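worker-3 :: picked DNA-binding response regulator
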Amino acid sequence: MTTLLLAEDDADIRLALGILLRGRGWELLEAGDGRTALRLLHRHRPDLMLLDIGLPGLDGWQVLERTRDLTDVPVLVLTAHGTEAERVRGLRGGADDYLTKPFSNAELVARIEALLRRAPARASWTGDGYDDGRLHLDPGTRAATWTGRPVRLSALQFRLLQVLARNRGQVVPTARLLEEVWGEPAGRGDPHKVRFAVGRLRRALQEAADGPLPEDVLAAVRGIGYRYRPDGP
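worker-3 :: C-alpha cells ->
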C-alpha cells in the first residue's frame, strides 16, 4: 500500500486531508510538527511527503533540508504563501512540487498521483537501497560503497548518484538532473553545475576503487546528458 506522510500543524486541515487521502486508499502518517515528521520519515519510509512550511519547532524549510540529506522521497510543499520567491526557494531546496493554500481536493490528489507516477523507483529505494554488484547505496544512512569500499559523498553527490544509478544504462538529460538533484526550474539551471558535480563524483568513485575508473561507468553523452553503466559498454 502507498504510504503518505502529512506534516501539517493545523489539526482541522489534518482531519480533512486525512479523510480525503485515506478515502483514496492511501495509508497516511500524520505529524503536527517538524521533529515528529522527521521521526516518522526515518521510521516508516513513506512514498511521498506532504509538507506544510509553517510548522512549529523545525519549520518546513528545515524539514525539507534534512529530508534531502537522507532520502529522495517526493515532497509536495503546502503553503499559504504563493509568492514566486517562496516557490523558487522550495524547488531549489529539493521540493518536487508546490501547492498554495487554499487548494481543491481534486488538484491535490492529481499532484500526488503525478509525483507517485514520476518517481516509483525513488520511493522504493528508501526502503531497499540499491546494489548492482559494484555500487551499493543505502538511502537511510546515505552510505555508498564501490566494490565493497566506502565512497565519501556529499548529500548532493549522493542524490546525483541515486538518479544516475536508478536509470542505469540510460542517458539522463542534463536538464532533468538539474531539476531532480538541484531542484532547478525547468530550463533555468546552469549545466556547468552538473559537469563539475559529475567530475567530483567520478573522482570519489576512483578513490574508493583505488585505481582508474572505466570511462563508460560514468560518462558524458555530448549535448544530451550523463549515463551510469556499471557493466561497461
